[in-house]
Automatic annotation (TrEMBL):
<feature type="transmembrane region" description="Helical">
    <location>
        <begin position="462"/>
        <end position="484"/>
    </location>
</feature>
<feature type="transmembrane region" description="Helical">
    <location>
        <begin position="244"/>
        <end position="274"/>
    </location>
</feature>
<feature type="transmembrane region" description="Helical">
    <location>
        <begin position="377"/>
        <end position="396"/>
    </location>
</feature>
<keyword id="KW-0812">Transmembrane</keyword>
<feature type="transmembrane region" description="Helical">
    <location>
        <begin position="120"/>
        <end position="138"/>
    </location>
</feature>
<feature type="transmembrane region" description="Helical">
    <location>
        <begin position="45"/>
        <end position="69"/>
    </location>
</feature>
<feature type="transmembrane region" description="Helical">
    <location>
        <begin position="408"/>
        <end position="428"/>
    </location>
</feature>
<feature type="transmembrane region" description="Helical">
    <location>
        <begin position="324"/>
        <end position="345"/>
    </location>
</feature>
<feature type="transmembrane region" description="Helical">
    <location>
        <begin position="286"/>
        <end position="312"/>
    </location>
</feature>
<protein>
    <recommendedName>
        <fullName>Integral membrane protein</fullName>
    </recommendedName>
</protein>
<feature type="transmembrane region" description="Helical">
    <location>
        <begin position="89"/>
        <end position="108"/>
    </location>
</feature>
<keyword id="KW-1133">Transmembrane helix</keyword>
<feature type="transmembrane region" description="Helical">
    <location>
        <begin position="212"/>
        <end position="232"/>
    </location>
</feature>
<keyword id="KW-0472">Membrane</keyword>
Amino acid sequence: MKVADVPIAAAPSGNGPTDSGRSGIHGRMARLPFTGADSAQPAEIAMWIAAVVACLGLAVLVRAAGRGWEPLPTTFAGLPFTANRRPGVSPVSLLAPAVAAVVLIAAWRGVHTRLRWVPLLVTGYGAALGWIVALAAGNARSGPAGALAVSTFTASDGHLPELGAAETDPTALLRTFTEHAGTYSYGTRAHPPGPALLVWTLARLGITTPTALGIVLTALSAATVPLVAIAVRSLCHETAARRLVPVLVLAPWALWMAASVDGVTAAVGAAFVTLGVVGSEPGRRLWWAAACGLLFGVATLFSYAMPWLGAVVAATYFIRRRPLLNVITGGCFLVPLSLMSLWGFSWPDGLAVAREQAAQAAMQVTRVGAATLPGSVTRLPVGLAVVLVACGPMIVRAARRVRLTPGWPFLVGAVPAILFGMVTGLAAATLERSWLPFYCWLVVPALAPNPRPDGPGDIVRAGALPLGLAGLGALTAIVAQTVVEIGPSGPL
């Protein structure tokens, strides 16, 4: 007999906040018997494997037809499928399977249904941090001690090798950031100056050693899990949020979260989305919308694709009929960008230069017979393969249940952002890292109830937690950690 996760108390009607924080007894959820079987998992796993193989096969065909069997163009450099292979197993490599086993067993036992809400968020954060560190430790050549060291800050192909220019005067970096973009590494010129300013700020706080810096960045990145859960709880109901926690914890994209400023970007993006979604609940004060806008502006300084994620907040304001919040959030969003403009950095000019640099990097085209394919087309199969691998087989269930979820606004921002990166080529060299702020929202529909409830929220039986899909996703990350070198040799 399987176990279903259902709330003891039904959610109230309307688009406002549910009483999910008080559902059950002292915030706990009930575990009731459910005799149905999740027979769709084998088919979804087969569909996922077929999709990954098809995308990789198409990428290989494009490569073979256009350039023989030579290395891929520079626009594909650094992808997990073309990284340096490092087969090997060590005792540290067993850490990731151990963490995955503990999380899966805890989810199977229904721990996510019995813990109170706040302890669940804390536990989810700790488990996510442990999963990220375990994957990084198993992949690092220098062992656990060097797993989180940010050695790529001095690498020619890594992020921010020009950080020395900001050590004494960060405004000088801002004034010349667009002008000198061509002299920077690809990892720097494909992003706004937010990552450089973050690392400079941490240095002012005394966090200067590579290991200390990596630990702080990893700890900040792991905050993505509880932040996403809070947003899903507000928009979808607590049942869906609780079931999503173990899925987010064991996500394959954790491979690239360790010591990564893109992981921090994911946390900042999740934070402003959460402020907007929770702040749109009836009864919330307007400062929530103001804080959302300010943090949205800060997040936009970390990624040129981040404005797409703002569509999540706008869609949420729309469905909850709070149009005034759009004005408040939009006005506060302009404050950080205006400050950067006063200090010498124009975000629109930075985007234009970044696109120009990406276009120059993608000048090489792939010829198939007599036809010539533009870079955006040749990047498409590789980009889709990256999304499929990063999200695991859970992405298939999410695609099949999009129409069932009240969390569809999350997809309004995440899907266009990834397509934007594919078309413009801004993320061509670091696809798997550049899209870290968007992966977490793509899997939200996977936890939607089937059939969809008549009222708002997840107020019918949710069915069995898809542990098979979550487990295979974790296995994908473990295999990649074992055979693919991720970290110092690739972009940060």
